[in-house]
Amino acid sequence: MKCSHFVLCIAMAGLSGCGGGGDFSDLQAYMDEVRSRPKGAIEPLPKFQPYESFTYSAAALRSPFQPPIKIDMVQRQKGSLEVKPDEARVKQFLEGFNIEVFEMVGTLGNEDATYALVSGAGGVHRIKVGDYLGRNHGRVLAIDESKVDVVEIVPDGEGGWLERPRSLSLKERS
Question: Record's PROSITE patterns (predicted)?
Fold first, then answer.
């Protein structure tokens, strides 16, 4: 019992020092300064700056991550005026992408036709002989178990057109 009275007395002595009519003059001075500020002085909203969109103008150029194609000017092929793309033809979906983005991943076939499965352009696509892919008017010539043969029609730089053969090889699962 003596111990609890002793602890109680010490606690009362400690608390008596906390509330003894302290000096609040600094707090009162701050409150007076806040009250004396002009009322209604709200900052105006910042002016809205409209977003200016950016149009990337180099999308049709060669990728800077691919090495440039070296052309020997002496042995360069001359284009033919007989070979040219059919500009009146309706473009197919896969012609909107570079041929380098496509990889052959398999084949499908039945008694009527053989199809190649190519991965790229956001998914896996089924193509057959006669379909077009790539930006250079690439037409599928042949499909077999290991590759797809494509011929592209590219400008020769002198007003003519060249046929350039390409192949998409089967990508083995790794």
Answer: PROKAR_LIPOPROTEIN
CA distance 9 to 2: 11
CB proximity list for 130: less than 8 A, separation 6 or greater: 139, 140
Measured CA angle at 133 (ends 131, 137), to 5 deg: 95
Cα–Cα distance between 84 and 69 in angstroms, integer?
A: 22
Nearest to 132, CA basis, from 77, 171, 102, 93: 93
Euclidean distance between the first and final Cα of the chain, in Å?
83
Residue 105 near residue 169 (C-beta atoms within 8 A): no
Q: Name the DSSP letter for residue 99.
A: G
Q: What is the DSSP letter of 12?
A: H
